[in-house]
Amino acid sequence: MKKAYIETYGCQMNVNDTEVIFAILEKAGYVRTEVMQEANLIMANTCSIRDNAEQRIWGRLEVFAQERKARPDTLVGIVGCMAERLKDKLLDTGKVDLVVGPDAYRSLPRLIAAITPDNPQIDVLLSRDETYADITPVRTDKNGISAFISIMRGCNNVCSYCVVPYTRGAERSRDAHSIVREACDVYQRGYKEVTLLGQNVDSYLWKSADECVNFAGLLARVAAIAPDLRVRFATSHPKDISDEVIETMAAYPNICKHIHLPVQSGSSRMLEKMRRKYDREWYLERVAKIRSIIPDCGLTTDVIAGFCSETEEDHKDTLSLMEEVGFDWAFMFAYSERPGTLAQRNYPDDVSPAEKNRRLNEIIALQNRKSLERYRAQIGKKLEVLVEGPSKRDPEQLCGRASNNMMCVFPALDRKPGTYATVEVVDSTSATLICK
Ligand code: 5AD
Ligand code: SF4
User: Fold this and answer.
1) Half-sphere exposure of 432 (CA within 13 A, CB side)
2) Is residue 360 within 8 Å of residue 334, measured between CB atoms?
3) Between vectors from CA 390 to CA 387 and to CA 391, what angle results, nearest 5°?
4) Distance (Å, rounded) from C-alpha 26 to C-alpha 109?
5) Is the distance from the beta carbon of residue 48 to the nearest atom of ligand 2 less than 6 Å?
6) Which of 101, 188, 325, 382 reaches 20 to 30 Å from 7, CA-CA?
7) Are residues 114 and 241 part of one domain?
8) Among 8, 14, 157, 341, which is best to mutate for testing ligand 2, by the most ligand atoms less than 8 A from CB?
């Protein structure tokens, strides 16, 4: 039996893609290993979203190359977004036997069989319809409680800073029945939570001869599987999140009350230039709508500092929006120019690295303050958590997430992972609720 080792970088979609790859590799006679030194096939499932993501992978490639030198029969593969973006440039290093893009994983067995020392193999064709709908992912999560399910692939929103439409191709939605089947299957295997994944879940739309299912419809179908199966989803797009989706969330207690709603900037001028197709007012209206229907909804976001031509005033608009909304948590980045994107072709990357960093640090400082406020506001509340396992800091304690996605720690007593517990919040940091 041959062994495959895969390191995964980037987003949750990539984590799920790695699970699909393991399922495909099983057909080629590979089992999964977590030990690189015993692997016959070493791969990185890569990310291109920011330059530093790619730099990390060039570094890993050196490590893989050393391993291949020590054990010459070992194959090295680069798959995922960076494979799609850099293609031959990866092969030209002479350190890679296999380069495969996100839509070509089905060809892995054939490609691997064709590899010889002088014949590395490449397939980076993007597809209009590949969704891997029929492939049952080999789950790689550690606890058997929470599973990720891809509901769509690719992206049709050409945000001017973003490389994803080029690395993952056009948007396509997966057969709704295959999604519900996969969710039922993991529930029957004891999982208690599924997270539905897509670049823009709100534009999910699947049609067959006699059915048309949108995202709200899909959410309802998955939520109806079992009342004790939690349903989460990511990522939502502010321009597409509909009242129907928000109302569906409200209607099902087991749909978790958390929305990841990337704003990117608080300046309408920047949003226009980013081609986000909404402005500050639209975003604030969506937040108000969410909070009017689901008052306790957890809200998180992504923010980019120092996009092309961003002025101090634009930056202040971002700070004031974050102040006004009060996100529970945010992923915050300095703008990183990506080759081939609309922004790279049309706008100079003219905010200096030092200035980007200063703005980013202000954004982070503000968010830390807001996170602490939002978490402290939970003190005294009773929350239902899905017990995940021992807390990282203190093995005497358990941890688990509340519906709003906040992490809770609480005394273990006799609670078991995979069960629900009601806890009362007694204290907090800016990232954890301390409960009893
Ligand atoms: N530079 C910095 N951040 C980016 N993101 C996407 N592209 C870039 C880029 N070129 C961020 C966005 C997106 C998140 C996944 O990554 O905030 O929501
Ligand atoms: Fe990275 Fe985006 Fe590709 Fe995910 S889709 S791996 S975040 S570039």
Assistant:
1) 12
2) yes
3) 100
4) 9
5) yes
6) 188
7) no
8) 14
Task: Flag whether 38 is in a domain.
Answer: yes
What are φ and ψ of residue 223, in 5° steps? -65, -30
The neighbouring-strand residues paired with 215 are none
Q: Given this model, what pLDDT does residue 414 score? A: 87
Answer yes or no: do 404 and 342 share one domain.
no
Q: What confidence tens digit (pLDDT) does each residue in 358-398 have?
A: 999 999 999 999 999 999 999 999 999 999 999 988 889 99
Of 351, 375, 399, the position where a domain reaches its end is 375
Cis, bond preceding 235 (omega within 30 deg of 0): yes
Number of domains in the chain: 3
Beta strands, E only, 269-379: 298-305, 329-334
Give residue 233's domain range: 146-375
132 belongs to a structural domain: no
Q: What is the mean pLDDT of the chain?
A: 97
Q: How many residues does the chain have?
A: 436
Give the pocket of ligand 1 (CB within 6 Å): 49-50, 161-162, 262, 264, 302, 304, 333, 335-336, 338
Q: pLDDT by residue (tens digit) across 271-315?
A: 999 999 999 999 999 999 999 999 999 999 999 999 999 999 999
Picking from 346, 375, 404, the residue at the C-terminal end of a domain is 375
Looking at the structure, tell me whether residues 169 and 195 fall in a common domain.
yes
The closest residue, in CA terms, to atom 2 on ligand 1 is 335
Whole-number Å distance, alpha carbon 163 to ligand 1 midpoint, is 9
- Other Cβ atoms within 10 Å of 143 Cβ, number: 12
Task: Specify whether the CB–CB gap between 99 and 115 falls below 8 A.
Answer: no
Indicate if 244 and 214 belong to the same structural domain.
Answer: yes
Whose alpha carbon is nearest atom 6 of ligand 2?
A: 47
